[in-house]
């Protein structure tokens, strides 16, 4: 079985150094060297 990329999330202007999933796995938080935190609805 092969893993297949389902989606590419593009928003940060600098590399991402931290990611975290919400307890219900519906949100993804990303933190970047561009000093922005993004919340992604991945449900």
User: How many domains in all?
Assistant: 1
Low-confidence stretches: none
**Extended strand count:** 3
Order of strands, main sheet, comes to 1-2-3
State the secondary-structure class: mainly beta
Distance N to C terminus: 23 Å
What this model shows, in words?
The chain is mainly β and 43 residues long. The chain has one domain (1-43). 0% of the residues lie in helices and 40% in strands. It has no helices and three strands. Strands 1-2-3 form a three-stranded antiparallel beta sheet, with no helix packed on it. 0% of the residues are buried. The mean pLDDT is 93. Keywords: WD repeat. Pfam families: WD40. WD repeats lie at residues 9-43.
Outline:
With 43 residues, the chain is mainly β.
Write the layout of secondary structure elements.
Layout: E1 16-21, E2 27-32, E3 37-41
Antiparallel strand pairs: 1-2, 2-3
Q: What are the main properties of this structure?
A:
single chain, 43 residues, mainly beta, 3-stranded antiparallel sheet, 3 strands
């Amino acid at each position: 079985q092969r893993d297949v990329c389902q989606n590419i999330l593009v928003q940060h202007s600098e590399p991402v150094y931290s990611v975290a999933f919400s307890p219900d796995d519906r949100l993804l938080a990303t933190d970047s060297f561009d000093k922005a935190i993004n919340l992604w609805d991945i449900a």
